[in-house]
From TrEMBL:
GO terms for molecular function: prephenate dehydratase activity. GO terms for cellular component: cytoplasm. The keyword Amino-acid biosynthesis applies. Keywords: Amino-acid biosynthesis, Aromatic amino acid biosynthesis, Lyase, Phenylalanine biosynthesis. The keyword Amino-acid biosynthesis applies. It holds the Pfam family PDT. The lineage of its organism: Archaea, Methanobacteriati, Methanobacteriota, Methanomada group, Methanococci. Its EC number is 4.2.1.51. This is prephenate dehydratase.
Amino acid sequence: MKNLSIYTLPKGTYSERATKKFLEYIDGNYKIDYCNSIYDVFEKVDNGGLGVVPIENSIEGSVSLTQDLLLQFKDIKILGELALDIHHNLIGYDKNKIKTVISHPQALAQCRNYIKKHGWEVKAVESTAKAVKIVAESKDETLGAIGSKESAEYYNLKILDENIEDYKNNRTRFILIGRDVKFKTLPKNYKVSIVFELKEDKPGALYHILKEFAEKNINLTRIESRPSKKRLGTYIFYIDFEDGKEKLEEILKSLERHTTFIILLGRYPVFD
Ligand SMILES: O=C(O)C(=O)C[C@]1(C(=O)O)C=C[C@@H](O)C=C1
């Protein structure tokens, strides 16, 4: 049987770790294919296969690029979700010689206090693994990278410091994206993600949406606004909620009255 592709960020990234975890639950033969950026993952998945990308971190909040791309790539849906503990490492040659640390912007932000304490310069790149690769290839002792244990092993560099994230409870949620998937086992919990624009900019407009959820006794797990990109001060809203007894079509219908558009980003299982 032909191997299908599951696309994610480069070898050694936390996204690769999440992909391996997803593969434990997915039915079928998938081969991991690596992409340089979240945008590339969406582009590949648009032509078929599956993808795994980060969507939210417990310290830094949403990965806004993922949010925007879910809206842009209309045929790509969220098919599953899982969260991982993220423990960052300082990777390189000699901690005392470091002047600049390189990493993904989310990882740099999650270690902001640690970096500040050492007075290092920072440089952002597309992924934590790319940062480690740059440090390995440059052989420059004044550079350090922030990344996973796997990436240090893969590029044969030393771990100079462990658990350097500023907050202990550092977790990132990853989503499985694509058009369709079959799982071997299904968990108990399901979630729904939607995005919409309010019909009118008037007092209580968002309240009417929230009221529909409150009256139906549906638990929201996330609400977030992003610029609509049409005009300054206009927003679209992303809402995640627990999937319960209520019929999804009925929920969406009740919200339609208050929105100019509403898109279902996915109804999907949440794995541990
Ligand atoms: O660069 C990586 O290792 C990634 O998988 C990306 C990413 C992110 O964008 O949030 C994933 C988990 C961590 O929060 C830091 C970086």
